[in-house]
Design goal:
The chain has about 400 residues and is an all-alpha fold. It has 17 helices and no strands.
Length: about 400
């Protein structure tokens, strides 16, 4: 699949890339937008049985539906194209998210969040695969860097805006979702469907060149482990800051935003880092930063040190997320990219959903500080594994040259 010089020039324009990356950014902000509203929302629905659980589902239910839908979405995107699903799904995303402003029933809110998750899976997978359609080789690495920046920087801004709006009224952050309608119009004017090559083949050939799940298992497992580890921060940090550091809860959003800014900053340099270190050594480096961050949180109970730790862990996960996408697209053939990325999204959100089930038993039996220490140990193991893999890979390459 290749673009004409005219289309390639169009994809390099600032307007085109802004429309693509804004579309990508909005869909990953679903949780960040309303997260600061949850305490007031829970108090508002205090009369509802099991509201302590139901209020958390407002945040996690979209992730569950993305996890379930993403593999099927990938199949549809590969078979029928990208934009015919992305654009309607973005409209549904905006409406199902923004309607929360008008709802005053917890179960109606939960239904709207489920619809939000389904639409997010179409937009998020579709935009990422579109990116791989538009950009090849080193241009793709640069585009993935910019996408990582837009997503992380946008997440940081939304944490701050969501906190401010939630302070006024828990309903107000839901209005931010309606911005998606303006971004949808912008994207519809600029994005285009890439014509893909279709080959008539026998079933035997399809089996040889089709989607092989085992090819991508290392990327999927890494994504799952990454998110289980990293999501111990947004799920446990509020309690750590209030119960151990004795900080005000208002500082939680600002602290998480700092981590997101670090993710955005490092994402800008991914293309250069990839050329310098390669995929495997970059994984070792990202695990090192996560190890340093989790160790600092666990061992030194100080708010300034916590901020440093969040920057370090943000750098680590920022490298890791872009590296996962880059590795997957380097392994995937053109006709199965969407399917491969669909499973990546599924494992990513599976990690988010599972993370509390990993961290909470550790907190119960070992305490908050030791939970972060266990997470640091996992990062240490990951770092050692990829140092070994990187060294072996270089030895094999050198042998192949000689």
């Amino acid at each position: 699949m290749s673009l004409s010089p005219a289309l390639m020039k169009k994809t390099d324009s600032g307007v085109f890339q802004t429309s693509l990356f804004l579309l990508s950014t909005m869909t990953v902000l679903g949780g960040a937008i309303i997260s600061p509203s949850l305490p007031d929302l829970e108090r508002h629905f205090a009369y509802v049985p099991h509201i302590d659980l139901l209020s958390k589902l407002i945040l996690t239910l979209p992730a569950l539906f993305i996890m379930i839908m993403a593999p099927f979405v990938g199949i549809l995107l590969d078979k029928y194209g990208r934009l015919k699903f992305i654009l309607p799904a973005m409209a549904i995303w905006s409406i199902s998210g923004g309607i929360g402003y008008f709802l005053n029933d917890i179960y109606s809110l939960l239904i709207s969040r489920a619809v939000l998750g389904i639409s997010t899976s179409f937009v998020m997978d579709g935009v990422s695969v579109l990116l791989s359609d538009y950009f090849q080789g080193s241009r793709r690495e640069k585009a993935l860097s910019k996408q990582g920046f837009f997503r992380s920087f946008g997440g940081a801004i939304m944490l701050i805006i969501g906190g401010y709006l939630a302070h006024l009224n828990w309903h107000f952050p839901f209005l931010v979702y309606f911005l998606g309608l303006f971004i949808l119009a912008f994207a519809a004017l600029n994005l285009f469907e890439v014509k893909r090559e279709h080959h008539i083949t026998h079933h035997a050939t399809d089996k040889k060149s089709g989607f092989r799940f085992l090819t991508f298992v290392p990327v999927y497992i890494l994504t799952l482990v990454n998110m289980i580890m990293y999501y111990t921060i947004p799920t446990q940090l509020p309690f750590f800051m209030v119960d151990i550091l004795h900080e005000k809860s208002a500082r939680v959003g600002e602290s998480l935003a700092l981590s997101a800014f670090a993710m955005a900053f490092i994402a800008l340099f991914y293309a250069k880092l990839r050329r310098t270190f390669g995929i495997y050594l970059l994984y070792a480096i990202s695990f090192f930063f996560m190890l340093a961050g989790f160790l600092l949180i666990s061992l030194i109970h100080s708010y300034p040190v916590l901020l440093l730790a969040l920057v370090l862990s943000g750098i680590g996960i920022g490298i890791m997320l872009v590296n996962n996408s880059s590795w997957l697209f380097s392994l995937a053939e053109e006709k199965i990219k969407a399917r491969a990325y669909g499973f990546l999204s599924s494992f990513l959100f599976m990690g988010q959903f599972i993370s509390p089930f990993f961290s909470q038993p550790l907190v119960r039996y070992l305490g908050l500080s030791n939970m972060f220490l266990v997470t640091a140990f996992i990062a240490f193991v990951g770092m050692i594994i990829f140092i070994v893999v990187s060294v072996k890979s270089k030895i094999l390459k050198n042998k192949a040259k000689t």
